[in-house]
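Form 7-S
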Amino acid sequence: MSASFDTRILRFDDDLQVEARTVLSHTAEPQNAFEVAVIMETLGHTDATARARGYEDLFDLSRHLYETLEDVGVVRPARPPGGAGTPRPLSLAKAAGLFVGQSLPWLTALFVLLAVGTGFWSSTLFTRDQSAAMVLALSVGLVVSALFTYPFARRATFYRLQGRLGLVGWSARWILGGGVVGSVALVGGAYLVLERGLGSYTPGDTRAFFEIGVAIALLQLSFAPLYTLRAFGWLAAATAAGVGVLLAGLARVDHGIYTDPFAVVRAQLASVGAMVLVSVVGSWWLLRGAGDRVTPPRKWAVVRSTAPYAVYGAGFFLMVMIGGLAAGGIWHGAFRYVQDYNVVTGTAIFVLLPLFWYTTVTGERLSPHVTGLVRRLSVAEVPAAAANLLARFRRELAMLVGIGVLAGTVLTVLAGALSGSVGVAGVVWGHLALFVGALCSYVALAVGVLSSQMLIVLSRPAVPAGGVLAGSAATLGAAGLFSLAVSAAAAAVLGLLVGTSLFAALAWWASDRVLRRFDHAYYGAM
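Output:
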């Protein structure tokens, strides 16, 4: 019996060596057992064929094959001691700097909001229709530009990590250049609908809508290369130029008996133009000469691979902004500026400052952590590593919610303390229930973003993309139903809470499920 047993072992060993040589004919140096599993599956092997040969599944067979490679002359790379050689995550200070650099225009807009007392791109100088056109312009500009900035960021980051600045420049010219054309066309189409189709506002208001919508889109597109290349100095210079031009422009506006609101719009446009100019110069300077002798990828392949990120980016801004459309009466075929809703949600959005800082820090550390983890794991070690990664992810979510609760409490206390002296705080304190609802909505939004980061790191962008679209639809639909019973502002806040909670639930459920089956997720990502 022992002779028969030994013969069977030898036969299995011979079979493994044959399979090992077959694997080597497809790749000279497999990095790990997962890569071997990918090749085995392309050769027609399945869990069933692996079990027929005495193994638990395809991963078990691939692990044995990977270990057999030494018998056919392949020296596996030594496991780095203590994780040495794996990508180093950003330090806490650098990750914080990345968040501040990416958020400079947004932070500036928030503090301007606090000063003037109304929503983005509007002020107490504007009529209700003018403010409505400004808010619509912001919404359309953000959604349209995100169709291009998110795919660019994904593709350009991939090239930057490879040190291929030539392809970063190629992506900037083609993706962001296409974004300029596409944004002008899409905002122009919306302008024609408002001006010629609906006749909703005065010609001056709709013209301001077009100008500011295009300006917002160009601002986002021009900042994208600086974000991706982490050019903090250029980001600061662009923002400083914009603030300086804005202050100089507003100082020249005649604030006598009547203030011309379109003079304020011109000052805003000049400010955005200054930021765009500095950003374009900075991007050109950083990428100058990098496009020489570049072999570009197929454009359709780039579009296909980045499409989910375009949907995610556009859907994210749509979900955040669509509540304002519901509050303004979109269900009744019109849109009007609702000060209560815009002031309350615009002030509550301050809670996203610490929340998005935290998601930036964890996101920047997550990708190198996962990459370093899988490089030094064998298949047999994956379950324990997956359990640790799942526990880490749940701790980060709990920390995020805790930060949101603390920041929301601080904002609420400040609103009460300043309600008698600051106009914005007085409006917020008078609509405290709406303010709390908006705070909860933004905490749910941050949970969805953090969960989406995990899915994107594991190459699962379809769920975040579908989640933001589902959240947008739920926000609009729920707001419409709630408006039958409560005020438009309250209905819009409730709708926003429903939509962001749905997005958070979908993204969290998917990320939790992926981490429970981490070996399959990583294998599929390869």
